[in-house]
Amino acid sequence: xxxxxxxxxxxxxxxxxxxxxxxxxxRADVTGPGGKTIDCYCTDTQGGRIELGETICLQVDGRMxxxxxxxxxxxxxWRKIEDGCLSAANRFSPRPQTLPRL
Length: 102
Prior knowledge:
Layout (H helix, E strand, L loop, with lengths): L1 H15 L12 E3 L5 E3 L2 E2 L5 E2 L4 E6 L2 E10 L2 E9 L19
Antiparallel strand pairs: 1-2, 3-4, 5-6, 6-7
């Protein structure tokens, strides 16, 4: 039940952060009762950990967009930054149909 344990951590982060004000994305941990530190972070579609402030390409309902992991009401969430995703596509002119002979 990997997914369920992630939800418990997510809920604990939200509940324990209730009175904390986050001044910047650099502070990604919450100190709970007894001094126990609870990490606050987002997860990607494979369940990988994405730190607060990081930006990735998300695909939701067939749409692709850049999103940043942020805190909202003391809950980690994805905020859409821009439509489309950055690409490593070749931006040079197309290759010629015939190559010169050497």
